Amino acid sequence: MLRRVPWPLLVFAAALFVPALGSRxxxxxxxxxxxxxxxxxxxxxxxxxxxxxxxGHAAYFGIGAYTTxxxxxxxGLAFLLxxxxxxxxxxxxxxxxxxxxxxxxxxxxxMLTLAFAQIVWAICFKWNEVTGGEQGMPEIPYPDFDWxxxxxxxxxxxxxxxxxxxxxxxxxxLVAACFWILRRIVGSPFGxxxxxxxxxxxxxxxxxxxxxxxxxAAFVLAGTFAGLAGxxxxxxxxxxxxDFAYWTKSAEVLIMTLLGGMxxxxxxxxxxxxxxxxxxxxxxxxxxxxxxxxxxxxxxxxAFPGGIAxxxxxxxxxxxxxxxxx
Length: 326
Prior knowledge:
This protein is mostly helical. It contains 15 helices and two strands. The model has no long low-confidence stretch (mean pLDDT 87).
């Protein structure tokens, strides 16, 4: 019965109603969660479905953010052109980096992704003429929403919102589209081949599968969607800074993926919700929030080794078996 409920559509509809609550804080937190959910889901394509652990996924997040910021602020390009350009530029970098990374396996692959990410961070930190260097690029403009005022007389439900709330609606729609594409990818024969490679790459290669080509394709796709998330985050953050590409961002998104449940499609999104809300609550009560947050995460990961979404799926299957027997 639970499987028949259109959960994605319900979550999408609920997300669109967040600004109607009237609180700018709720809209801010929801926007943060939506972008990080896409970032974590892009990493899950590597970690959960392909079995490639990347310590440098933040590099593509940062590249996408800087691409969007440079095109919109310095080149004056519209968001409708800058946003897809961020995906294309990030895909190009992911193709180049991935060409070298997928030649290695396991810990060597992970460390090489970290090395490339540190190179990207160093360039962002030092290239003052283009990236702004240590100061970054503040005051990234919002997309132009003047057209909303012109059509609000015809469609009154579109009027009356702030610019940040209009950008939230755009973010929700774009992230939902990215989720739909990613869902189709993991459910396709290509996605099933990725899980086969994750389970036993030697056997997949033995039956004639070009494992390195599939891994490279997954690497490029994961980097592309991470870049799109970074492009949205730069505008949402109203600035792009070198720490977007720093290794700590890779650690955060990896924690979200593990916490939510890698290998489950919606697990990383659940992990993003859990981690961001935990962070918001703990910071408001104590200055020792890193210690408390770390302790809670350790307990959660030991209590739910399959992640929150994996545990929920297991519990739902157990309930279904009990009801079937009854």
